[in-house]
Amino acid sequence: MGCREVHAATVLAFLSGTASVAGLLAAVLLPNWRQMRLYTFNKNERNVTVYTGLWIKCARFDGSRDCVIYDPQWYTAVDQLDLRVLQFALPLSMFTAVSALFLCLIGMCNTAFVSSVPNVKLAKCLVNSAGCHLVAGLLFLLACAICLTPSVWVIFYNNYLNRKYEPIFSFDISVFIAIASAGGLFFTSILLCLWYCACKSLPSPFWQPLYPHAPSMHSYASQPYSARSRLSAMDIDIPVVTHAS
Protein backbone atom coordinates (compact mmCIF):
# COMPACT_ATOMS: atom_id res chain seq x y z
CA MET A 1 0.00 0.00 0.00
CA GLY A 2 1.44 3.37 -1.04
CA CYS A 3 1.39 5.30 2.22
CA ARG A 4 3.11 8.36 0.76
CA GLU A 5 0.41 8.97 -1.86
CA VAL A 6 -3.34 9.43 -1.76
CA HIS A 7 -4.71 5.90 -1.53
CA ALA A 8 -8.13 4.62 -2.60
CA ALA A 9 -8.83 3.57 1.00
CA THR A 10 -8.50 7.12 2.31
CA VAL A 11 -10.66 8.53 -0.51
CA LEU A 12 -13.31 5.87 0.13
CA ALA A 13 -13.21 6.65 3.85
CA PHE A 14 -13.70 10.36 3.15
CA LEU A 15 -16.68 9.69 0.89
CA SER A 16 -18.18 7.26 3.40
CA GLY A 17 -17.76 9.78 6.20
CA THR A 18 -19.38 12.51 4.11
CA ALA A 19 -22.37 10.29 3.32
CA SER A 20 -22.72 9.37 6.99
CA VAL A 21 -22.73 13.02 8.05
CA ALA A 22 -25.39 13.74 5.40
CA GLY A 23 -27.47 10.88 6.80
CA LEU A 24 -27.13 12.26 10.31
CA LEU A 25 -28.26 15.67 9.12
CA ALA A 26 -31.34 14.14 7.49
CA ALA A 27 -32.15 12.19 10.65
CA VAL A 28 -31.86 15.34 12.76
CA LEU A 29 -34.15 17.41 10.54
CA LEU A 30 -36.83 14.85 9.70
CA PRO A 31 -39.89 14.79 12.01
CA ASN A 32 -40.05 11.01 11.88
CA TRP A 33 -38.55 9.67 15.08
CA ARG A 34 -41.75 8.41 16.66
CA GLN A 35 -45.32 7.87 15.53
CA MET A 36 -48.30 7.97 17.82
CA ARG A 37 -51.39 6.55 16.11
CA LEU A 38 -54.75 7.65 17.51
CA TYR A 39 -57.78 5.57 16.53
CA THR A 40 -61.40 6.72 16.50
CA PHE A 41 -64.53 4.61 16.53
CA ASN A 42 -66.57 7.34 14.87
CA LYS A 43 -67.18 6.43 11.23
CA ASN A 44 -67.46 10.09 10.31
CA GLU A 45 -63.94 10.86 11.50
CA ARG A 46 -60.54 9.66 10.39
CA ASN A 47 -57.67 8.28 12.43
CA VAL A 48 -54.86 10.65 13.32
CA THR A 49 -51.13 9.95 13.33
CA VAL A 50 -48.82 12.23 15.30
CA TYR A 51 -45.27 12.39 13.89
CA THR A 52 -42.74 13.39 16.51
CA GLY A 53 -39.28 14.69 15.64
CA LEU A 54 -36.47 16.25 17.59
CA TRP A 55 -37.54 19.79 16.79
CA ILE A 56 -41.12 19.72 15.47
CA LYS A 57 -44.34 17.76 15.87
CA CYS A 58 -46.91 17.18 13.13
CA ALA A 59 -50.40 15.59 13.31
CA ARG A 60 -52.01 14.27 10.11
CA PHE A 61 -55.23 12.58 9.18
CA ASP A 62 -54.97 9.21 7.42
CA GLY A 63 -54.54 9.72 3.69
CA SER A 64 -53.46 13.36 4.05
CA ARG A 65 -50.06 14.94 3.63
CA ASP A 66 -50.88 18.21 5.31
CA CYS A 67 -50.32 18.77 9.00
CA VAL A 68 -53.50 19.44 10.90
CA ILE A 69 -51.44 20.46 13.91
CA TYR A 70 -47.91 21.75 13.37
CA ASP A 71 -45.81 22.62 16.41
CA PRO A 72 -42.47 24.27 15.50
CA GLN A 73 -41.73 24.97 19.18
CA TRP A 74 -41.78 21.28 20.11
CA TYR A 75 -38.05 21.26 20.82
CA THR A 76 -38.60 23.46 23.88
CA ALA A 77 -41.26 21.21 25.39
CA VAL A 78 -40.04 17.69 24.61
CA ASP A 79 -41.46 15.40 27.28
CA GLN A 80 -39.80 12.17 26.12
CA LEU A 81 -36.38 11.46 27.59
CA ASP A 82 -34.92 9.62 24.61
CA LEU A 83 -35.73 12.45 22.20
CA ARG A 84 -34.32 15.00 24.64
CA VAL A 85 -31.03 13.07 24.77
CA LEU A 86 -30.97 12.86 20.97
CA GLN A 87 -31.29 16.63 20.72
CA PHE A 88 -27.84 16.90 22.27
CA ALA A 89 -26.25 13.65 21.08
CA LEU A 90 -26.83 13.91 17.33
CA PRO A 91 -25.50 17.47 16.88
CA LEU A 92 -22.47 16.51 18.98
CA SER A 93 -21.95 13.42 16.83
CA MET A 94 -22.20 15.54 13.67
CA PHE A 95 -19.66 18.04 15.01
CA THR A 96 -17.24 15.22 15.87
CA ALA A 97 -17.67 13.61 12.45
CA VAL A 98 -17.17 16.92 10.63
CA SER A 99 -13.96 17.48 12.63
CA ALA A 100 -12.81 14.01 11.56
CA LEU A 101 -13.61 14.82 7.92
CA PHE A 102 -11.57 18.01 8.21
CA LEU A 103 -8.60 16.09 9.61
CA CYS A 104 -8.94 13.45 6.90
CA LEU A 105 -8.95 16.17 4.24
CA ILE A 106 -5.85 17.76 5.76
CA GLY A 107 -4.10 14.37 5.66
CA MET A 108 -4.95 13.81 2.00
CA CYS A 109 -3.95 17.34 0.98
CA ASN A 110 -0.68 16.99 2.91
CA THR A 111 0.02 13.71 1.11
CA ALA A 112 -0.81 15.11 -2.32
CA PHE A 113 0.90 18.51 -2.22
CA VAL A 114 3.82 18.24 0.20
CA SER A 115 7.17 17.09 -1.13
CA SER A 116 8.56 13.75 -0.02
CA VAL A 117 11.64 15.29 1.60
CA PRO A 118 10.71 18.29 3.78
CA ASN A 119 12.89 21.20 4.73
CA VAL A 120 14.91 20.25 7.80
CA LYS A 121 13.94 23.51 9.53
CA LEU A 122 10.23 22.68 9.12
CA ALA A 123 10.43 18.94 9.75
CA LYS A 124 9.16 19.19 13.31
CA CYS A 125 6.29 21.52 12.35
CA LEU A 126 4.84 19.52 9.47
CA VAL A 127 1.86 17.23 9.91
CA ASN A 128 2.00 13.52 9.28
CA SER A 129 -0.82 12.44 6.97
CA ALA A 130 -0.95 8.99 8.56
CA GLY A 131 -1.31 10.59 11.98
CA CYS A 132 -4.16 12.74 10.67
CA HIS A 133 -5.96 9.66 9.35
CA LEU A 134 -5.50 7.79 12.61
CA VAL A 135 -6.92 10.63 14.72
CA ALA A 136 -9.75 11.04 12.20
CA GLY A 137 -10.53 7.33 12.52
CA LEU A 138 -10.73 7.60 16.30
CA LEU A 139 -13.01 10.64 16.00
CA PHE A 140 -15.27 8.74 13.60
CA LEU A 141 -15.46 5.91 16.13
CA LEU A 142 -16.39 8.38 18.87
CA ALA A 143 -19.06 9.96 16.65
CA CYS A 144 -20.46 6.48 15.96
CA ALA A 145 -20.77 5.71 19.66
CA ILE A 146 -22.41 9.07 20.41
CA CYS A 147 -24.96 8.54 17.63
CA LEU A 148 -25.64 4.82 17.93
CA THR A 149 -26.30 4.54 21.66
CA PRO A 150 -29.27 6.96 21.94
CA SER A 151 -30.63 5.87 18.55
CA VAL A 152 -30.89 2.25 19.67
CA TRP A 153 -32.30 3.41 23.00
CA VAL A 154 -35.29 4.88 21.11
CA ILE A 155 -36.37 1.35 20.19
CA PHE A 156 -36.33 0.13 23.80
CA TYR A 157 -37.91 3.33 25.08
CA ASN A 158 -40.70 2.91 22.54
CA ASN A 159 -41.47 -0.53 23.99
CA TYR A 160 -41.49 1.04 27.45
CA LEU A 161 -44.05 3.63 26.36
CA ASN A 162 -46.27 0.93 24.88
CA ARG A 163 -46.20 -1.01 28.13
CA LYS A 164 -46.78 2.06 30.27
CA TYR A 165 -49.63 3.57 28.25
CA GLU A 166 -51.15 1.85 25.21
CA PRO A 167 -49.61 0.11 22.19
CA ILE A 168 -49.95 3.19 20.02
CA PHE A 169 -46.27 4.16 19.72
CA SER A 170 -43.87 3.05 17.00
CA PHE A 171 -40.44 4.28 15.91
CA ASP A 172 -40.12 5.79 12.47
CA ILE A 173 -37.66 6.05 9.60
CA SER A 174 -35.30 8.51 11.28
CA VAL A 175 -34.24 5.77 13.70
CA PHE A 176 -33.11 3.59 10.80
CA ILE A 177 -31.33 6.51 9.10
CA ALA A 178 -29.43 7.34 12.29
CA ILE A 179 -28.41 3.72 12.88
CA ALA A 180 -27.32 3.35 9.24
CA SER A 181 -25.30 6.57 9.53
CA ALA A 182 -23.65 5.25 12.69
CA GLY A 183 -22.75 2.10 10.76
CA GLY A 184 -21.19 4.27 8.05
CA LEU A 185 -19.15 6.13 10.65
CA PHE A 186 -17.96 2.83 12.10
CA PHE A 187 -16.99 1.55 8.63
CA THR A 188 -15.08 4.78 7.98
CA SER A 189 -13.24 4.46 11.29
CA ILE A 190 -12.25 0.86 10.62
CA LEU A 191 -11.06 1.74 7.11
CA LEU A 192 -8.82 4.56 8.32
CA CYS A 193 -7.41 2.52 11.20
CA LEU A 194 -6.62 -0.40 8.90
CA TRP A 195 -4.90 1.98 6.49
CA TYR A 196 -2.79 3.33 9.35
CA CYS A 197 -1.91 -0.16 10.60
CA ALA A 198 -0.59 -0.97 7.12
CA CYS A 199 1.71 2.09 7.37
CA LYS A 200 2.86 1.85 10.97
CA SER A 201 6.02 -0.10 10.03
CA LEU A 202 7.44 3.07 8.48
CA PRO A 203 10.40 4.64 10.29
CA SER A 204 8.55 7.96 10.61
CA PRO A 205 7.33 8.82 14.12
CA PHE A 206 3.64 9.20 14.93
CA TRP A 207 3.24 12.90 14.15
CA GLN A 208 6.23 13.53 11.87
CA PRO A 209 6.06 13.82 8.07
CA LEU A 210 6.41 10.76 5.86
CA TYR A 211 9.46 10.62 3.62
CA PRO A 212 11.69 7.87 2.17
CA HIS A 213 14.38 8.06 4.87
CA ALA A 214 14.45 9.43 8.38
CA PRO A 215 15.91 12.93 8.24
CA SER A 216 18.99 13.88 10.15
CA MET A 217 20.86 17.07 10.47
CA HIS A 218 23.90 15.45 8.88
CA SER A 219 21.93 14.51 5.78
CA TYR A 220 21.12 18.11 4.89
CA ALA A 221 23.88 20.18 6.57
CA SER A 222 27.53 19.89 5.69
CA GLN A 223 30.14 19.53 8.39
CA PRO A 224 31.39 22.80 9.84
CA TYR A 225 34.78 24.10 8.84
CA SER A 226 36.21 23.57 12.33
CA ALA A 227 35.64 19.84 11.99
CA ARG A 228 37.58 19.76 8.77
CA SER A 229 40.38 21.89 10.19
CA ARG A 230 41.11 19.31 12.88
CA LEU A 231 42.18 16.71 10.30
CA SER A 232 45.84 15.82 10.60
CA ALA A 233 48.29 15.97 7.79
CA MET A 234 48.29 12.17 7.59
CA ASP A 235 44.54 12.20 6.79
CA ILE A 236 44.91 14.72 3.99
CA ASP A 237 46.02 13.33 0.66
CA ILE A 238 48.58 15.85 -0.68
CA PRO A 239 49.87 15.11 -4.16
CA VAL A 240 53.71 14.99 -4.50
CA VAL A 241 55.26 16.36 -7.65
CA THR A 242 58.65 14.89 -8.67
CA HIS A 243 60.95 16.29 -11.33
CA ALA A 244 62.51 13.98 -13.83
CA SER A 245 66.27 14.19 -14.02
Summarize the structure.
This protein has 245 residues and is of the alpha+beta class. It contains 6 helices and 5 strands; from the N terminus they run αββββααβααα. It has helices at 8-29, 81-113, 129-164, 173-199, 217-220, 225-229, and strands at 34-38, 48-52, 57-61, 69-71, 169-171.
Describe this protein's structure.
By secondary structure, the protein is of the alpha+beta class. It has a domain at 6-32 and 78-111 and 127-199. Helices cover 52% and strands 9% of the residues. It has helices at 8-29, 81-113, 129-164, 173-199, 217-220, 225-229, and strands spanning 34-38, 48-52, 57-61, 69-71, 169-171. It has a five-stranded antiparallel sheet. Strand 2 and strand 3 (57-61) form a beta hairpin. The model is unreliable at 119-125 and 206-238 (pLDDT under 50). Its main location: other. InterPro entries: Claudin12, Claudin_CS. This is CLD12 protein. It is a multi-pass membrane protein.
